[in-house]
Structure formats: C-alpha cells, structure tokens
Amino acid sequence: METNQNQENQQRQSEFFQQQQYQQPYYQYMPTDNLSTFATLHLVKGILTILFSLFFLLYMFVGTALTFGSMNNDPDLPFHPGSIFIVIGAVGFVITVTIGILTLLAGKYMKERRNYNFIFAISIINCITGILGILLGVFTILDLNKPHVKAQFEPGYDPQNPFGQNA
C-alpha cells in the first residue's frame, strides 16, 4: 500500500514538473544577442565601402586623362582606351556607393529593430564584398536566425518584458 502511494506521488510530481517545464519560458536567462555590435559594424562597413568608392573616382579620372590628354589619336582604334576606364569607374562607383548606403541603412534599421528582411538581404549581399563583408554577413545571418532575435523585430515587442509574461 505504501509503495503504491509512493508511486502515485512520484507520478504526480513528474507530471507537475512536466507541466511546469512547458509553462516556463524556454530561456532561464535573458538571451543575449549581438545586434548592437553588428549594427555598429554595419555602419563601419558602410563607411569603408563608400570610402572605397573613391578608388573608382580615381579610375574615372585616369580614364578622363587618357581620353583628353595629349596622346596622339590613332585613327586605327575603333574606340579610345580611356573610355573603358571611364565606364568601368562609373559602374564601379555606382555599385560601391549603393552597397555602402544600403549597408548604412541596414545598420540603422538594426539599431531600431525594424525591417528584418531588408537587414537579412543586405547581410547576404555583404557576403560578396570581400572578407570583411563575408564575416559580417555570415555572423549577422546567424544572429538574425535566433528565435529571440526574430521576436525583437515583431510589432508589439516589449523589451522590458521579452518573454511576454504577465508580471
């Protein structure tokens, strides 16, 4: 009889602990994220990308110097070689400035915890822009995929009550 009661008590306790397990939040601690760090790094990367675009302006200047400089114009050439420099410089300048501005916007949105999909897309685009972009893009994507980070981008998220519990 006594063993029967002990078994019933143990069963009730295990059921109670199982119920308690699902009522408590998944995290027993405040989950951390690196979004503020990544936001700052996106701002730095955006500024560096815009500064890198100055290289393409120099490239365009060299093309302009080749085009209008005092070179003897060979009539056998179907085009002037300086034109290639100007076109490549202009296209490169537009692309790098665009990526730089979009990266700056992603950093701004990350600080404000809005436009999750935009930040995710820019992180993917950053993966094609060199080693700094690869590192920043991959680690940002990893951090954005965490459930508690996704929740921060949802409307109505309360940072004072991250688990949505009634106090």
Furnish the topology, listing elements before pairings.
Blueprint: H1 2-23, H2 35-68, H3 81-112, H4 116-126, H5 131-144, H6 147-152
Helix pairs in contact: 2-3, 2-5, 3-4, 4-5
Q: What does this molecule look like?
A:
There is one protein chain. The chain has 167 residues and is mainly alpha-helical. The chain is built from six helices and no strands. The chain is rod-shaped and about 110 Å long.
Q: Biggest β-sheet, characterized? A: none
- Ends: how far apart? 43 Å
Tally of helical runs: 6
Determine Rg (CA atoms, Å): 28 Å
Q: What structural class do you assign from the helix and strand content? A: mainly alpha
Q: Hey, roughly how much beta strand do the residues contain?
A: under 5%
Number of strands: 0
Percent of residues in helical segments? over 70%
**Mean model confidence by pLDDT:** 82
Shape: rod-shaped
Q: Could you list the spans in which at least 5 consecutive residues all have pLDDT below 50? A: none
Order of helices and strands: HHHHHH
Quick recap:
With 167 residues, this protein is mostly helical. It has helices at 2-23, 35-68, 81-112, 116-126, 131-144, 147-152.
